[in-house]
């Protein structure tokens, strides 16, 4: 709020002791609830001593009659008139500055709201991508048809068959241990082993390990290595990273002979 002429008159007369007891009580009550008004009253109290460099008055002191007389004398002088003018001018400048601060605050508030909206929308998009990614993952992963079976492989060892059976029973941790053991012992590191190990990592949500294994599959340059594009797209779908899932699918459809070419095109349409 901005002080009116009447407010300044009340402040001056209050400090000069010119008000009635009821008016003084009213001023004091206002000072208790209005911080800005209280600061203005205290500022006026300090003015005579700021000018004479004698210090500030203690209005709570019992023997303050001499201090009041000094202000009364100043009130009648030309000097106090100038001071009154400066108080009013200072008051106007204060409120102008307050308005400027409010404008700055409005700009800040608008920026803050905009930032919150961006964060909110980003979270919504992230949640939407995660939900849509997981649902599409569940629809398209289809391990039964998308992984090679031991019946399609020659020279399959019992240990590898055991790992595949554990995977189909959804005992992914046990399956992972078996396929890691097969690779570490150097017995086999063919497409079949890498596919099942990568798929086990994926189902256990060990995404970085899954991607690393599928990259190894891709680097083999074998007949089945292009399956890695499909598997990697499944990793990103489950993570909710739609952009990277699309990148893998786009790489896959560059060659019509690649694994799940038609499904990749179909899935891309759903992701657009």
TrEMBL record:
<dbReference type="InterPro" id="IPR019734">
    <property type="entry name" value="TPR_rpt"/>
</dbReference>
<protein>
    <submittedName>
        <fullName>Tetratricopeptide repeat-containing protein</fullName>
    </submittedName>
</protein>
<keyword id="KW-1133">Transmembrane helix</keyword>
<dbReference type="Pfam" id="PF13174">
    <property type="entry name" value="TPR_6"/>
</dbReference>
<keyword id="KW-0472">Membrane</keyword>
<keyword id="KW-0802">TPR repeat</keyword>
<feature type="transmembrane region" description="Helical">
    <location>
        <begin position="108"/>
        <end position="126"/>
    </location>
</feature>
<dbReference type="InterPro" id="IPR011990">
    <property type="entry name" value="TPR-like_helical_dom_sf"/>
</dbReference>
<feature type="repeat" description="TPR">
    <location>
        <begin position="191"/>
        <end position="224"/>
    </location>
</feature>
<keyword id="KW-0812">Transmembrane</keyword>
């Amino acid at each position: 709020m901005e002080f009116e002429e009447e407010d300044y008159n009340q402040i001056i007369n209050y400090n000069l002791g010119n008000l009635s007891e009821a008016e003084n009580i009213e001023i004091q009550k206002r000072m208790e609830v209005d911080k800005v008004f209280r600061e203005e009253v205290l500022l006026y109290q300090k003015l005579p001593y700021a000018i004479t460099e004698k210090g500030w008055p203690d209005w709570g002191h019992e023997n303050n009659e001499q201090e009041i007389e000094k202000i009364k004398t100043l009130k009648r002088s030309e000097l106090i008139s100038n001071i009154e003018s400066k108080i009013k001018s200072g008051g106007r400048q204060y409120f102008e500055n307050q308005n400027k601060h409010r404008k700055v605050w409005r700009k800040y508030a608008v920026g803050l709201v905009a930032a919150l909206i961006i964060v909110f929308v980003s979270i919504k998009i992230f949640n939407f991508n995660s939900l849509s990614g997981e649902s599409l993952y569940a629809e398209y992963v289809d391990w039964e048809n998308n992984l090679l079976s031991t019946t399609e492989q020659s020279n399959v060892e019992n240990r590898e068959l055991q790992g595949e059976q554990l995977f189909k029973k959804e005992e992914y941790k046990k399956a992972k241990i078996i396929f890691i053991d097969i690779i570490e012992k150097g017995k086999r590191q063919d497409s079949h082993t890498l596919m099942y190990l990568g798929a086990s990592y994926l189902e256990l949500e060990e995404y970085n390990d899954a991607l690393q294994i599928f990259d190894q599959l891709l680097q083999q340059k074998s007949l089945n290595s292009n399956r890695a594009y499909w598997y990697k797209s499944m990793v990103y779908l489950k993570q909710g990273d739609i952009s990277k899932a699309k990148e893998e699918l786009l790489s896959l459809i560059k060659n019509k002979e690649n694994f799940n070419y038609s499904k990749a095109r179909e899935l891309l349409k759903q992701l657009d």
